[in-house]
Amino acid sequence: MNSERPLRSVVEDIVPPPDVTFAPQRTDLTGPRSPTRGMGGRESQPLLGRDHEHHDFENHFPDDPVFMDVIRSADVAIENGIYPEIIYQGSSGSYFVKNAEGKKIGVFKPKNEEPYGHLNPKWTKWMQKICCPCCFGRSCLVLNQGYLSEAGASLVDLKLQLNVVPKTRVVKLASETFNYNAADRAISRTKKSLSERFPDKIGRHIHRVGLPPKVGSFQMYVDGYRDAYYWLGKFETEPLPEPISTQFQFQFERLVVLDYIIRNTDRGNDNWLIKYDVEEGEKPETPERDWTMVEQPKIKIAAIDNGLAFPFKHPDSWRAYPYYWAWLPQAKIPFSTEIKDLILPQLSDMNFVQELCEDLYELFRKDKGFDKSKFEKQMSVMRGQILNLTQALRDGKSPLQLVQMPLVIVERGKPGSGPFAERVKTIGDTFTQSFQERRPFFSWC
Ligand SMILES: Nc1ncnc2c1ncn2[C@@H]1O[C@H](COP(=O)(O)OP(=O)(O)OP(=O)(O)O)[C@@H](O)[C@H]1O
Ligand SMILES: [Mg+2]
């Protein structure tokens, strides 16, 4: 344990997301107002700040000017009729957000369009949920908080300096292209026509003419990545050369650390992306040149789609949601010294872990459905995962061995119970560590 380590805030730990690129901002655009923008004297106010859904979230990120600029450019684009575009695959409403030039800059997932959100636009999935509830959803997760899980994964990534999750925060956006109910659209139309007919008398009394902003997760768009399925297939027939395979292994370990800590239940190979290319200026002259022969190529991983993590209990035995990366050859290689040096000093410090829980609390508590006892359970699972991970790193285990370790929960402030309970006292708090009694059906988890 390193009690000397100074406590640092998430803000100070912020590192840039992987290879996020976005086009230059345009602020001089004129044209139709975005649905979230007020009228008259209110036009100069922040576009996205209204609290329609009574969540405690605002589009204000004084600690993060880069992210703030991206949200502003999304705002300008929407004002100019360049609306977020639904992502067709997927079980819920997810949207590519663009800037004024039409370039993708983010992925927005509104809370009320999540699989359990009441405005989920994918009705076939909704039918599945109604007709076959046992095949839908995950009973170990807090319902309809996917957007918090997305932002929480980014928080963990930043705090641990893993740098594999594209920066994700909770924002509010409104767009014609989002799924609204008929009432919201009708109110919006009525307000608009009244304001246009009586701009002085009525317009200035109407706070917002447009559609109500939706709260949701906004993840920075990463350019030049393809899903892991594609690249892993390629690597099977054309193995990566050194030192690229070592670089890939280091990146892979970071993904493992993230997924294990947040206990991601949805890490299929479609939910992480890989970028592997040649630096600008180093492109081979001949197009037929072998892609394994490029000089100083870079390989990077982006862990996207983190909305099904932070369970409040370990998944049930019959449906254990394995980490699909556990089947990859990279999972059989013991954790590197590099990842141990990065992770162990942080996670061995109980203050650091406590701070991580507090930062997540600050994020999660803003949801209108926040339940403190559920949150405590989520943190108990996470502490258990951290305990296992720390042990696995110390013992020189591989990711595959890590996921085979017995599942642990570490509860705060409760007396020990059961034959496996063990009490650990740390500054000001008592923690009880206990093992999950039943082994999961899939031995991987
Ligand atoms: N940050 C990002 N940068 C670039 N592309 C992204 C990003 N996030 C998502 N995508 C692209 O959008 C697709 C869908 O994203 P994602 O899996 O997060 O959405 P989803 O609606 O949760 O889908 P599903 O329900 O199928 O998991 C991804 O397969 C990827 O191609
Ligand atoms: Mg997905």
In short:
This protein has helices at residues 10-13, 65-79, 123-131, 146-159, 182-197, 228-237, 244-262, 337-347, 350-364, 372-394, 399-403; strands spanning 85-86, 95-98, 104-110, 168-173, 214-220, 226-227, 272-277, 298-303, 408-412, 422-426, 429-435. By secondary structure, it is α+β, with helices and mostly antiparallel strands.
Describe the structure.
It is globular, with a radius of gyration of 23 Å. The chain has a five-stranded antiparallel beta sheet, with helices on both faces. It starts with 9 loop residues before the first helix and ends in a 10-residue tail after the last strand. Helices cover 32% and strands 13% of the residues. It has one domain. The chain is α+β, with helices and mostly antiparallel strands and 445 residues long. The site of magnesium ion has 4 residues, from loops. Its EC number is 2.7.1.67. Belongs to the PI3/PI4-kinase family. Type II PI4K subfamily.
Query: So what's the oligomer here?
Result: single chain
What coarse outline follows from CA principal-axis ratios? Answer: globular
Structural class by SSE content: alpha+beta
Largest sheet: 5 strands, antiparallel
The tally of domains stands at 1
Query: Could you tell me how far the N terminus lies from the C terminus, measured between alpha carbons in angstroms?
Result: 27 Å
What's the count of strands?
11
Strand content: 5-15%
- What ranges have pLDDT less than 50 throughout 5 or more consecutive residues? 1-52, 280-287, 440-445
Tally of DSSP helical segments: 11
Output mean pLDDT: 80
Helix content: 25-40%
